[in-house]
Amino acid sequence: MPPLRQRAAEPLDLKKPKDKMKALWALMALLLLPPETLSARVSRTRRELAPGLHERGIQDAGGSYCERHEACCRGRNDGCTVPYLDTICYCDLFCNRTVSDCCPDFWEYCLGIEPPFPVQRVCVRNGNRFPTGATYRDNCNLCTCYANGHWNCEDHACLINADLVDAVNRGNYGWRASNYSQFWGMTLEEGIHHRLGTTKPPTSVMNMNELQMNMEANEVLPRHFNAADKWSGMIHEPLDQGNCAGSWAFSTAAVASDRISIHSMGHMTPALSPQNLLSCNTRHQQGCNGGRVDGAWWYLRRRGVVTDECYPFMHQEKEGALPAPPCMMQSRSTGRGKRQATDRCPNPRSHSNEIYQSTPAYRLSSDEKEIMKELMENGPVQAIMEVHEDFFMYRSGIYQHTPVAAWKPENYRRHGTHSVKITGWGEEHSPDGSDQKYWIAANSWGTDWGEHGYFRIARGANECDIETFVVGVWGRVGMEDMHHHYKK
Asked: Where in the cell is the protein located (predicted)?
C-alpha cells in the first residue's frame, strides 16, 4: 500500500470569508502568547541570522570569557552569554556550529579541543591589547600591530635620541644634552632638512679676500666680552626659524639688525624681517628650502628690507607642502643707492615701511683674535658652521661634537650647514685645570633652546668649521637717517 501523502497547504485567499476568519483567529492566537515566548522567538531569530563572530579569525584568543564566568551550558541556552569586544559571545553547545558565535575560549575550556577557526593574535602594549592594524608612534617611528601579534616599528634615526642624550650627559664632554618637545617626533633627516638651511658659498666666494684687522703684535684682548653688555639695547634676541630651512635669512637679518643699531649709535634699532628675504630674495635662493648668505647680503645692499613688525615671519609646518608666499614688499631707487618701499606693510597694524640697507659684506680672517677684535669694535658677526646630530640636543656648557653616535648605524650620523650670529667670547676653568675658550653665539631655534637661545662653542680650534667663513658688514647709515630717526 503506497504511503499516504499529505496534501499541500493551500494559500489563504482573504477575499473568501472562510479564509479571512482563519487569518483573524491565527492573529488572535499570536497576540495571546506570553511576552517571554514572543521575545524568545525574536531573540532566536536574531541570533540565528547574525553573522559569525570569527569569520576573520578569533580576536583576543588568549582572553578569559567562559572560564572567567564558569559558564559551559548544555544544548542551546540564549542566556549563556559573556560581553565580548563590542557585542556578546556564547558559552552553550549551540554556539559550536558553522556560523559560530562562541566565546574565544569556549572550545578549550568547555570542550577541551583546539578552536576550529584561525586565531587572530593581538599586540600588547602597556598591558592593553590591540588588534591587527593598530598603530602608535614611538618618537619619530610608526609602529604597526602585525597579524602574528608583534609590533613592527620603523627604524628611522630620531632627531631626539634618548640614548645619545644619556651618553652625552654620562660622558665628560663639557656640555649637557636635553630633550626638546619641538624636536620630538621628528627624524634626524627632517631636522637636517627643516632646521638648518644654509648652502655653502661657491668657491669664488670662499676665496674672496679676507679683511685684515689692524692689530699690534702684543695686543691683549679681554678674556670675556659680550656685545649685549657693550651695546645695551642694541643687540636683538635670538630668532626662531621654526621648520623653515632659512637660517641663511635669519642669521643675516639678525647680524644686520645689530650692526645698523650699533652704527647709528642707537638712533635706529630695527629688528629686520627674515620673511622679506625669504619671499623676495629669490635669485638663486630657495626660501625655506635653503639659500646662500652671500646672496642675502647682496639683496640687503641692493634692495634692502623692512622690519619684522612690518613684514612678519610666516611659520611653516614641516609636513606642509604649501608654495612659498609671494613677495609682498617692493622698493624703488631714490638716488645715491638709497631705496624706498612702494608697498604698504603686509602687517596692516604696522605703518612704517622704511627700507634698511647695508654696505657690501666683507670676509674676516679665520684667526680667532682678528674675529674677536672685529666683534669688539664693530659688533656681532655671521658665521657658517656644520651642525651634527648631537648639536640639536645641546642644553648648556661649551659645545664640542662628541663621538656618542659612532657605534650607531650611518643614518644616525648626519650633518648639515647652518649659519649663526656670534656675539661674544669667554673662558671657563675646566675640572682638569685647563682653561676652555669659547664663542657665544645666537642660534635661530627660539629662546627655549640652549642657553636662552644662545650656545657656547669651543673657540680657537675651528670647532664644526665655525671659524672658516666669518662675515662682517656695515649698516648703510647716513647723517640724514640718524637725524630723521632722532626727530621721531
From this structure: Secreted
